[in-house]
Amino acid sequence: MIYKEYKDIKLSCLGMGNMRLPQIGKPGSGDKIDYAKAHEILDKALASGINYYDTAHVYNGGDSESCLGEWIAKQDRDSFYVATKFNIGACKDYKGMFEDQLKRLQTERIDFYLIHCILDGNVDEYINSGAIEYFEEQKRKGRITYLGFSSHASPATLKRFADLRDWDFAQIQLNYYDWLYETTKEEYEILYSRNIPIVVMEPVRGGRLADLTPGPEGILKAAHPEWSSASWALKFVKSLPGVQVILSGMSNLEQLDDNLATFSVENDFTEADREVLFNAGRALRNDLYVPCTACRYCTDNCPMQINIPEYLKFLNAYKLQGKWGLQGIDKVDSQGAPGDCIACGACMTHCPQGIEIPKFMAELAEVM
Predict the structure, then answer these.
(1) What is the pLDDT of residues 188-238, one digit of tens each?
(2) With contact defined as beta carbons under 8 Å apart, do 55 and 81 qualify?
(3) pLDDT of residue 28
(4) What are the tens digits of pLDDT across the range 315-333?
(5) What are phi and psi of 76, to 5 degrees?
(6) pLDDT for residue 151
(7) Are 55 and 87 in contact (CB under 8 A)?
(8) How far apart are alpha carbons 27 and 310 in whole angstroms?
(9) CA separation for the pair 178, 185 (Å, rounded)
(10) Longest dimension (CA), the chain
(11) Is 353 in a helix, a strand, or coil?
């Protein structure tokens, strides 16, 4: 395992994201986490040297924190670091939420605490809520060790929030696709220029960069047949000097093993590799229609209970393969269907990617 110095401690470059832990039912069904399988992954992660564990109040309706908490209670608490977050859109009672999180996580301190999901539309609410001052107080009391934030905001808003205080770290979505086509490169440079250590989320874009279409996958395989598509994405992020920890939401032991191999070697990504990867990204751009990362922030607020991420996968497949891409759409585990969408927009207020979900639901309903 590769480690990097952080203040007076060392953090594993690979962090364990706990948003996509194995579930009892079908993946993406919204069912409860399978604690036994999840703990098996967490046990191996810790034994393999991963010492950064990330969760949030909103992941799996709080079940992610509870699952992690049961695991934490069985471990040496000083052998790893826990990160969780406050999301003002989910609950405005930051004091009550923080106390609940300590209980769910079965710990007396949060090592890395984040103001969660800064957006252009909520930044003023965060600044004016009193939450930042409250969490600074908890840091002084030793209940929070390091205070940071996560952002899906524009570069201008990111600059504004980054300059509010001396943040200990910041978390952004960073992967080679967004580096090419979104504002990710600029966001990285904003934080790097301010010496704010970066924790990376969505390095494989919710799995999209681990399961490529044939064109871009062929480009990568021609260069390094032994590297998985996911490892290419992770190696790129790992090569950036401002990156402290790279989170991966590992759902099974196979994904963990692949990632452990990627993070066992330093400096194994060359400029030539970068150009190959960017060529694959350009090829993927021609194939990808809806840039969904399957974070599922949209689903909890859908009044029609539509499994939005699963249906958007089919819309992408339809754009690539025509009607053949819709095979199996009738088996999606969802209370509502695309045709049931009432275009209320509740989903869009929580989508970090800014996807016009009602428009795409209407389009998919039409082709179905």
Answers:
(1) 999 999 999 999 999 998 888 998 889 999 999 999 999 999 999 999 999
(2) no
(3) 47
(4) 887 776 667 678 889 889 9
(5) -75, 110
(6) 96
(7) no
(8) 10
(9) 8
(10) 59
(11) coil
**Whether 3 contacts 13, CB under 8 Å:** yes
What distance in Å separates the CA atoms of residue 6 and residue 197, rounded to the nearest whole number? 8
* Beta-carbon contacts of residue 49 (< 8 Å; ≥ 6 apart): 1, 3, 12
Q: What is the pLDDT of residue 26?
A: 57
Per-residue tokens: 98: 């923080």
> Is the Cα dihedral 305, 308, 310, 312 positive or negative?
positive
Residue 322: the pLDDT is 67
Q: What are the CB-based long-range contacts (under 8 Å, 24+) for 4-11?
A: 4/244, 4/245, 6/197, 6/244, 7/146, 7/168, 9/81, 10/51, 11/51, 11/52, 11/81, 11/244, 11/245
Question: Which pTM does this prediction carry?
Answer: 0.82
In the chain, the domains with their CATH numbers are 3-286 (3.20.20.100), 299-367 (no CATH)
Chain position carrying tokens 């709080």: 62
Q: Any long-range contacts for 21-30 (C-beta under 8 Å, 24+ apart)?
A: 21/60, 21/64, 21/67, 21/249, 21/251, 22/251, 22/252, 23/60, 25/333, 26/333, 27/251, 28/294, 28/296, 28/307, 28/309, 28/310, 28/333, 29/307, 29/333, 30/299, 30/307
Beta bridge partners of 17: 54
Eight-state DSSP code of residue 16: E
Separation between Cα atoms, residue 29 and residue 128, nearest integer Å:
36
Output the CA–CA distances (angstroms, integers) from residue 69 to 30, 138, 233, 343, in the order listed. 20, 20, 30, 37
Position 306: which residue type? I
- Asked whether 293 and 206 are in contact (CB, 8 A), the reply is yes
Burial 154-181 (b: 16+ CB within 10 A, else e): beebbbbbbeeeebbbbbbbbbbbbbee
CA distance 181 to 276: 16
Tell me, what's the pLDDT at 25? 67
Q: Which of 86, 68, 90 is nearest to 134 (CA)?
A: 86
**Residue ranges in the chain whose pLDDT is less than 50:** 27-28
